[in-house]
């Protein structure tokens, strides 16, 4: 055999050997990669979402609450007749409209200052906590508390309108009162922890995005079901604030989410305004008016100002 042929044979053998070694190397890399564990769902959450270190590890308890609308004309007529510096009308027994004769200075955004003022000027006003402010509409929204804030409930609201000087002009109030119920469901319930609520929000709803920050989590109530008796069953609920501006709500017992209601304020404002156009019903009672001739004037003033708020609110939303 000639030397050239032997040389070619060696080259071919080395080429085959190199190809074989390359395939062996690739197989080994794939085998090694197959042993790299996938990140757990907890690790995925902690990698993508900020603010988890600030969540409380406390084990909370809270009961379900039976509640019904407060009927002002039946139980609070004396108190409404003595509210300072205002004229009021209660429509359908459950919705209070009140207008100050002289505008009242609005406190700063500290919740304790709101409560102090409202305790003096608004019936059961200290039971409400600040929720949102709509500057362009001159509107402050407060929600009633029964131990904790009650979210997205038209029967537990306080709408406060200010003028351009930041003074309170008038307000609309609805409120709930706890019902007397002898039921095991009223016992304190063990609640899922704050971390678990965020975990379920992230993995079950797809509403959180990578880089989002959990800026606040606190406990409140959300209407679970409305009963035929007119009562509501309120369920403990985690309010999860994201990026200081987006609100999410997770059932604190079962862990499912409640849908967001971005039109809640506007829809309820519209309903309240409609009440004023139907203010001549049997369940409409005026307070602190000197004569009946003032009734139509008061309703008209309230209607026009709240209509302006609604128009500005619609532009904002």
TrEMBL record:
Record has Membrane as a keyword: yes
InterPro entries, per database record: YycI-like
Transmembrane segments: 6-26
Regulatory protein YycH-like domain: residues covered: 48-253
Recorded GO CC terms: membrane
Keywords: Membrane, Transmembrane, Transmembrane helix
Pfam annotation, one family: YycI
Protein name stated in the entry: Two-component signal transduction system YycFG, regulatory protein YycI
Native source organism of the sequence: Pelagirhabdus alkalitolerans
């Amino acid at each position: 055999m000639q030397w050239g042929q032997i040389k070619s044979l060696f080259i071919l053998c080395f080429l085959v050997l190199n190809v074989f070694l390359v395939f062996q190397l690739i197989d080994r890399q794939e085998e090694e990669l197959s042993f790299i564990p996938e990140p757990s769902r907890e690790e995925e959450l902690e990698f993508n979402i900020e603010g988890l270190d600030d969540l409380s590890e406390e084990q909370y308890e809270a009961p379900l609450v039976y509640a019904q609308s407060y009927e002002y004309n039946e139980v609070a007529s004396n108190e409404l007749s003595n509210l300072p510096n205002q004229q009021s009308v209660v429509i359908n027994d459950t919705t209070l409209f009140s207008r100050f004769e002289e505008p009242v200075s609005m406190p700063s955004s500290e919740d304790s200052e709101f409560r102090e003022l409202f305790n003096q000027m608004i019936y059961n006003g200290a039971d409400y906590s600040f929720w949102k402010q709509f500057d362009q509409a001159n509107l402050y929204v407060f929600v009633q508390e029964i131990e904790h804030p009650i979210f997205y409930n038209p029967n537990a609201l306080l709408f406060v309108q200010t003028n351009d000087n930041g003074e309170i002009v008038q307000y609309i109030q609805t409120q709930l009162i706890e019902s007397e119920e002898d039921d095991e469901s009223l016992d304190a319930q063990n609640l899922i922890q704050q971390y678990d609520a965020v975990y379920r929000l992230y993995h079950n709803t797809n509403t959180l995005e990578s880089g989002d920050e959990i800026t606040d989590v606190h406990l409140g109530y959300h209407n679970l079901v409305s009963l035929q008796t007119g009562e509501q069953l309120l369920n403990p609920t985690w309010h999860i604030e994201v990026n200081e501006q987006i609100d999410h709500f997770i059932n604190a017992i079962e862990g499912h989410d409640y849908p967001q209601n971005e039109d809640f304020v506007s829809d309820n404002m519209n309903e309240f305004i409609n009440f004023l156009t139907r203010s001549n019903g049997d369940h409409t009672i005026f307070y602190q008016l000197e004569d009946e001739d003032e009734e139509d004037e008061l309703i008209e003033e309230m209607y026009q100002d709240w209509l302006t708020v609604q128009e500005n609110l619609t532009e904002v939303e």
